[in-house]
User: Fold this.
Amino acid sequence: MATLNITKTWNTGDVLTAADLNGAFQDVEDFINTTKLDPSNLNKSLALNSMSWHFDGISAGVTHDIRVRVPSGFTYEYVELSVYSVTFSGGTPAVEVDFNNGATALLSGALTLSAAGGNEVTTFNEESATNGDVLQITVENTGTGNANDVTVVLTVKSELTD
Assistant:
């Protein structure tokens, strides 16, 4: 990684003039103009992102498909997938959440929420998607009655790879 070296010609307590600081400013300007701070000279930063989807109610037999496209130049590493529901009504709902990356299943089995006020969470071990991959989350009520205030959250680490 490129190193910025600044020329310092003063000591603590000195009174500075513009001329004293011009060398330091010139060092910064030269560094920016010659190094260009391109991606190979910067640490790749990671961001932790949570994407959430809320459903006021999911009736028996209803399925919602959520699709997320990974932006070009990025990698998403999956961290956690969770589902929550506040209340159930009119029967025995069972909210199932499945997750895949194209044709590849990312869960060994669907997350199943079968109690109001409960939540189900799964974590991942370094699975990821890149550059335009489409992720699909399927949320389905396979039971009877309604699941109310259902929230699904996918948390990923995103990294700029270009």
Remarks:
- Strands lie at 46-58, 63-69, 74-89, 95-101, 104-105, 111-113, 119-123, 128-130, 134-141, 146-160.
